[in-house]
Amino acid sequence: MPMAPMSSQCTKKETNRGAWTAEEDQKLAQVIEIHGPKRWKSVAAKAGLNRCGKSCRLRWMNYLRPNIKRGNISAQEEDLILRLHKLLGNRWSLIAGRLPGRTDNEIKNYWNSHLSKKVKQKEKQSRGLVAEESRPQNTKVKEMDFVEKRSEEGTSKGDEDSKFSHIEDGLFDCSSEGPLNLEWMSKFLEMDEDWLEFA
DNA sequence: AACAACCTCAACCGCATCAGA
DNA sequence: GTCTGATGCGGTTGAGGTTGT
Asked: Which of A58, A75, A103, A105 has minimal Cβ neighbours within 10 Å of its Cβ?
């Protein structure tokens, strides 16, 4: 699939662009099997691929990596994405990290094509329902308050990450536990509003 | 059948951050 | 401390597929 002009990092020489061929995939997978998924520039060179390292990394991460699930996002996964997005915002890589076999790109695409519409619709509906109740606070508002509170305390962009750090690094970090227990995560996320209230 | 409008998703871009020299 | 290249991330694009007229 031909794309726009070359990025600055791929201008040095003529590089292949657009859709990957099966042959390219095979070459890339072979080299990564031997050398591992690092030093992408040299991986591209070793594989004899006329691709920039960035492109190879993306292809590996989103398509060739082992244990990648493709398509058919289950209702449970969808629910999890919705909850995690409510909690973390557009931090796709973090959300993907909690969904074994799913990539940030896939989740981002799924969100943009399916869930964002669903959420908007839901919001519209609930807005209509709660209009009379004049209830000013929903979870999102609470979350924004929390972020604002933190920024008042002098948190910068770098510190913004730290507002999640106790979650990410502690009880929320499942990376070391092998395959994620989705049920457990869903249950945990049921606590998200309580957590935001607490924060 | 033909065309338009819409949808999906692989791939690219630009920027931020990290790591090593 | 600074520079530079590598890596990672979120946003965006556009080809190809699907659906509607």
From this structure: A75
